[in-house]
Amino acid sequence: MFDAPAKRSIAVLTTDFAFNLMRSHSRFKWRLPKVTAFTLASALILQGCANDSNVEYGVAGYVRGFYGGVVADEPNAALIGRDILTSGGNAADAAVAMSFALSVSYPSAISLGGGGVCIVHDGTIGVTEVIDFIPPAGTGMGGDRPSAVPTLTRGMAALHARYGQFPWAGVVSPAERMARLGHRVSRALAVEMSRAAEPLYGEPAALAIFAPNGRLVGEGDQLSQPELGSVLGQIRAGGAGAFYNGALARRVVDGVAQAGGTLTYEELRDYSPTWRLPLIIPFGDDELNLAPPPAAAGPMLGVMWRMLIEDDRYADAASEERAHLLAEVMKRASADRKTWLGEGYSSTMPLEDVLNPDRVAGLMANYSPTKATPGIELDPQNRQLAEVISGTGFVTVDRNGMAVACDLTLYNPFGTGRVAPGTGILLAAAPGLRGRNPLSLSPAMVINTGTLTFRFGLASSGGPLGPASEIQIMADTLLTEKPLDAALAEPRFLAVDVPDAVLVEKEGGDELAASLKAKGHPVSRLSWPGLATAIHCPSGITRSSSRSALCRVVHDPRGYGLSSFSDERGG
Questions:
Q1: What is the pLDDT of residues 497-534, one digit of tens each?
Q2: 297 and 215 housed in the same domain
Q3: Does residue 112 carry a pLDDT above 70?
Q4: Bridge partners of residue 420, in order along the sequence
Q5: Are residues 270 and 320 in the same domain?
Q6: What is the pLDDT of residue 543?
Q7: Cβ-based neighbours of 373, under 8 Å, separated by 6 or more
Q8: CA 261, CA 253: separation in Å to the nearest integer?
Q9: Who's near 183: CB < 8 A, 6+ residues apart?
Q10: Are 413 and 371 members of one domain?
Q11: Cβ atoms 438, 431 nearer than 8 A
Q12: pTM, whole model, 2 decimals?
């Protein structure tokens, strides 16, 4: 049980910080044409949050009526996020609890050994920020499977310290309970287990956790992780610092070395996440917020978005041209990324230049609405950037309009596949090797510029398939008013310049593949392993929204995640 919260302090947002934030926002606000109005899709009806029951603050059910919404690729974590919101926590509390929960219930995608990036919008004060806890490579010597610095815990501690209102123990303990007492394996994890069965069977420490009876756990089986639960318990009791300093930190470093990883005590101790300003692309009455490098998908998505909104190009295109237009935009953005991407996944040019409307317009100078542009024309040097399909994402929004969208990663399914002995922690692969990198990371969020309210949040997984999914979903939902669930159900594709190819989803994508072939695109087919999760609230959410805001909260039908939101009956 928790005491009723005092009003959360915003002293961390100093006058100088707020000034710099506004100045940075204005730097990206070029004049753009209006987009057509949204149609309202049915879903949430906001209710008052008065609690007429005897449920105490900090207990699920404390919030009556509208509590917000959560959506994630793995259902156990989504349920924990929902319980945090209905207990009186805010979106930041839910995001922290879900991240720790995913490290227990979805270790194929994220663990305490990994990290990621989140976009956070505080509707009360109208501020949007990016928290970057993208894992760098460890530098320890001698490991045969290079690993990354574990960054998730300090990233979540920074998010909670700045925006959370629940006690720290309240957002860590649900994951600790799952690990100590066990939880039922979801279909989402079971499918990932089956895909990675062969390499997992080759790792004794991983096998001891995930195959305690000689076979990998399956859907509905009980999975207990007592060593991981012990680590989470120390994080709960001692804060994030307990993981990065002292006896536990040394145990983690020693365990990484035993597992063939690469990590020093100093780089674990000294790691700190970074707060960054988002990249902002104004359109109509809204602005698209994206993460900056090293979340390298952020600028790439921004470039694609500018190509689509210039002169209402996507909205005004005939329906039969739109897939071709998207393919051409993806190919151009892929080629363009190689002109500004620098060492350490940074940008070699100022980001305002990368997103400059005149520069981006030039990328479309040779676009033809009737035929495909050969990839060699877009990148004569024929350079290829490799990316691994991995990771997970989630979005949450609370009843007061705070929203968080996160992309999390181990840079490889199950990371290195090895567990640090005595900790239960799967190690994230080191970035920079064999396509293991943050090129695909960047959640997206849309904020209304007039009211500074949350309108749309999107997260994804699947390496290069992630940004491809995001740009298709955003274009259909935000530029053509397609309902969010319909947009997520549409067959997807990825177009790249090198090798010159368009990969079209097998399931339901026959007509799409035929239309792209007719334009001259070299088409291949695949079962789409990337997932996306999204929340769309066209009218926004504020404290005073009352019954006026309608939202859709949708998980990807290709996966086995969960969407949770409240309706007019409070359920």
A1: 999 999 999 999 999 999 999 999 999 999 999 999 99
A2: no
A3: yes
A4: 425
A5: no
A6: 67
A7: 328, 331, 332, 366, 367
A8: 9
A9: 76, 104, 105, 222, 223
A10: no
A11: yes
A12: 0.90
- The answer to whether residue 56 sits within a structural domain is yes
Q: What's the one-letter identity of residue 462?
A: G
Give the sign of the dihedral formed by CA 322, CA 327, CA 330, CA 331: negative
Tokens of 194: 């089956």
* Domain with 357 in it: 293-385+464-526
Split into its structural domains, the chain has a count of 2
For the segment 200-238, what is each residue's pLDDT rounded down to a tens digit? 999 999 999 999 999 999 999 999 999 999 999 999 999
Shared domain for 482 and 448, answered yes or no, is no
Q: Which two tokens stand for residue 106?
A: 């979805």
The number of beta carbons lying within 10 Å of the beta carbon of residue 46 is: 23
**What is the residue type of 372?**
A
| Identity at 84, one-letter amino acid code | I
**Digit-coded pLDDT (tens) for 128-180:** 999 999 999 999 998 999 999 999 999 999 999 999 999 999 999 999 999 99
Residues 248 and 394 in one domain: yes
Q: Is 370 exposed, middle or buried (0-12, 13-18, 19+ CB in 10 A)?
A: exposed
Residue with tokens 């695949």, as numbered in its chain: 526
User: For residue 255, which of 151, 140, 107, 137 has the smallest C-alpha distance?
Assistant: 140
